[in-house]
């Protein structure tokens, strides 16, 4: 039976178990946070394979650092920093615009004020919801099955009687559209860090 850290106390207990080398605790933390990491990685790499690589890299680093986790009080922030660095590793040969985003992002505080975090979270969630609602019907259905239903591309293809290639292309178009819509509203570089926080809720 899979354990999920539904409360902060349970998460701290899992971190202590993970620090002691528990693979069961590691699996629980992986399933609790992998989708958030994948979402943000896919949004900015626009490549599902790269996004999945980032997820694996993040949790590989978590496992390597497991002995230090018992002292981590805010795992979300700890995970956020590792994910940020992994994403920027993908962007190391990118354009000056991405370099500027990195510089700004790296200056953001490593801790997130809870009240401010919730306010920004609500704003970004509303923008994301509006963008998803504007997708064409089939594209929106595919996006929802993947993001809300947690289905793989193969499972979506089977359920909708379409090819995996079609699912992959439709997801790429959906994410591209969402990214454009978000940037219309979050048009400053600060939006990058806000959006990351929203996806790591």
Automatic annotation (TrEMBL):
Keywords of this entry: Sigma factor, Transcription, Transcription regulation
Name of this chain's protein: RNA polymerase sigma-70 factor, ECF subfamily
Alphabetical list of NCBIfam families matching this protein: Sig70_bacteroi1, sigma70-ECF
Taxonomic superkingdom: Bacteria
Family named by the database record: Belongs to the sigma-70 factor family. ECF subfamily.
Domain RNA polymerase sigma-70 region residues, every copy: 29-95
Domain RNA polymerase sigma factor 70 region 4 type: 126-177
GO biological process: DNA-templated transcription initiation
């Amino acid at each position: 039976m899979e354990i999920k850290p539904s409360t902060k106390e349970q998460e701290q207990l899992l971190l202590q178990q993970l620090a002691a080398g528990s693979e069961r605790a590691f699996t629980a933390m992986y399933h609790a946070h992998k989708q958030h990491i994948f979402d943000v990685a896919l949004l900015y790499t626009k490549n599902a394979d790269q996004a999945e690589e980032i997820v694996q890299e993040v949790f590989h680093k978590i496992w390597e650092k497991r002995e230090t986790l018992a002292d981590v009080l805010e795992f979300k922030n700890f995970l956020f920093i590792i994910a940020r660095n992994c994403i920027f590793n993908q962007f190391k040969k990118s354009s000056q615009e991405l370099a500027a985003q990195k510089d700004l992002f790296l200056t953001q505080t490593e801790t997130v004020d809870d009240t401010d975090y919730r306010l920004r979270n609500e704003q970004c969630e509303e923008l994301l919801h509006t963008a998803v609602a504007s997708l064409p019907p089939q594209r929106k259905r595919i996006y929802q099955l993947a993001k809300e239903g947690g289905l793989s591309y193969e499972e979506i293809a089977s359920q909708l009687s379409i090819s995996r290639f079609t699912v992959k292309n439709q997801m790429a178009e959906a994410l591209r559209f969402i990214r454009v819509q978000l940037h219309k509203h979050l048009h400053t570089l600060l939006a990058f860090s806000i959006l990351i926080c929203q996806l790591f809720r």
